[in-house]
Design brief:
Length: 380
């Protein structure tokens, strides 16, 4: 119905026969009729478009790019990002990892030139993974994991000296250093010896802490390793200045393939399903998170990220007073690259969408191979 028709209808309904009506009264009455007509038109339009439910009108709240950003409970910032680095025992190494686009294995002599421009762009944190390549570097006990001249401890000392403001995390596991590729010391039947594994893992964590790591992050999933590390940090007088970040909910699955290529950590037999969580084990994940919080974890991590957003949400619920981290793992990163290369979607757009989903689920820290790109993208 047009505005003129509405005006005519209202005028007809509201006419009052009065031969003595003055010009002033007529003018006032006409204005009143126009006002009522506009109100009637507005009400009619509203009734048609939203059936009178004013709360359904949402578009105005995110019509502007800044207003859209305000809708997020957490917005991605540079301080949320941790960049994973693979450090080898060849000091001059710079080797491309074919299954992990854009990522390389680095020797310690290459780290400063690599990180200088990234830190200038706002890089705040890295997490180090040792990759021993020497023929005699691996044995059944993973003895090279805490070698004072090994890649991780050498890198920690170098980075502390070169970049005093950089936050350095060290992944703590034995899989890169064991001849069998499992995340601990084994019984004769090939199963994990949890007691010996925890003792060894906690010693490695202590070596990294004493070398200067700001954060130690055990990823082995052996029962009780958080408590053991925390107790040793307390005994050594380091607990007040070293963050203990637990891979509390680390699930088994096929998304770690590129990482294992990069770190040379594939098991020589069997798999890790008996100590990494089953993908359907939400209850187990909740129990593991609760356990690690009670044992002294300062940060809880969920890994992988995008397939376990419900677990990130659970972690935030259970550990409401703790920071929650999520590892956007190698397989997730490689899938986005492969799909973008095939023209399925834009790489930058999907990288942001995946990461924003992780933040929305409850994480405030993201371990991401996209970190170098995000440092640039967040400035544009």
């Amino acid at each position: 119905m047009s505005f003129s028709n509405l005006l005519s209808e209202v005028t007809y309904r509201d006419q009052r026969p009065s031969p003595s009506t003055t010009a002033t009264t007529h003018l006032i009455d006409t204005r009143s009729q126009i006002s009522r007509a506009r109100s009637y038109a507005s009400t009619a339009a509203t009734s048609v478009s939203i059936s009178g439910d004013i709360s359904s009108q949402l578009h105005g709240g995110y019509s502007h790019p800044l207003a859209r950003a305000w809708q997020a409970e957490r917005q991605l910032t540079k301080s949320m990002l941790i960049y994973p680095l693979f450090i080898t025992d060849n000091p001059d190494d710079e080797e491309t990892i074919p299954s992990l686009p854009g990522q390389k294995r680095w020797g310690v002599n290459k780290l400063v030139p690599l990180l200088q421009p990234l830190i200038a762009k706002g890089l705040k944190s890295v997490i180090l993974f040792g990759v021993p390549l020497a023929g005699d570097a691996k044995d059944a006990l993973g003895t090279a994991a805490d070698d004072p001249k090994g890649p991780v401890i050498s890198a920690i000392r170098l980075l502390r000296k070169s970049f005093p403001r950089l936050f350095i995390s060290a992944d703590v596991c034995l899989c890169e250093y064991t001849s069998h590729g499992h995340c601990g010391i084994l019984h004769d039947d090939g199963t994990l010896n949890n007691q010996l594994s925890v003792d060894r893992i906690s010693d490695v964590a202590m070596a990294y802490a004493e070398a200067g790591a700001h954060c130690v992050a055990p990823s082995d999933m052996n029962d009780g390793r958080i408590r053991a590390i925390k107790l040793k940090l307390i005994e050594a007088g380091l607990a007040h200045r070293v963050v203990l970040m637990s891979y509390a909910a680390k699930f088994s699955g096929c998304l770690y393939g590129p990482f294992r290529d990069a770190a040379g950590s594939s098991p020589s037999f069997g798999d890790r399903r008996c100590y990494q969580l089953p993908p359907g084990g939400r209850g187990l994940a909740r129990r593991a998170i609760q356990r690690d919080i009670s044992e002294g974890a300062d940060i809880i991590m969920v890994k992988p990220a995008t397939q376990f957003l419900d677990i990130i949400s659970d972690a935030k619920e259970i550990g409401k007073d703790l920071p929650i981290a999520a590892y956007h793992v190698s397989g997730e990163y490689a899938m986005i690259h492969a799909a973008a290369a095939a023209g399925v979607f834009d790489l930058k757009t999907m990288a942001f969408e995946a990461t924003e989903g992780i933040l929305r689920a409850g994480a405030s820290i993201v371990v991401s191979y996209f970190t170098p790109q995000f440092l640039e993208w967040l400035d544009t």
